[in-house]
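subagent[fold] <- orchestrator: predict structure for attached chain, return tokens only, no commentary.
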Amino acid sequence: MRAWLVRGIWMGLLHGGVQAGVAAVAVRSPEAGSAVRVIAFGLVLVAAVLWGALDAWRQFDGRGMCWFFASLVAGPLAGVVGVVCTGLLVDQTGTESLWPALTGGAAFTALVVLVSAAAGMGLGNLVPQPKETTGG
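subagent[fold] -> orchestrator:
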């Protein structure tokens, strides 16, 4: 499977699951909603930053375009997963929520994934590679 597809699917599933989790917490405990929202958003950011940093540290060829395509997959997937999980697990969210999730929500998710991964790649380039020793 292509690297960008793997990254896009996992980041989309993570972000969509986080959206549904935040919605569930907000329904059951409204006073904790804002704190959970910040923590959940931080989780998505940290995942993309760490994965991008790991790609840069491993010197993965084509990592910039890989993360660009991954963000294009993650955006719409996160929207669909978020709406479906919210509808099934939290409330009676219907198909009327799907269009906003596939437009504005998907664009926001794609931007978050792309910028976070780019920041991670920048940080990963700063970490020195381990020195190779010659056996002998």
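orchestrator: received. Logging for downstream: The helical segments are 3-28, 33-57, 63-89, 98-126. The chain has a mean pLDDT of 90.
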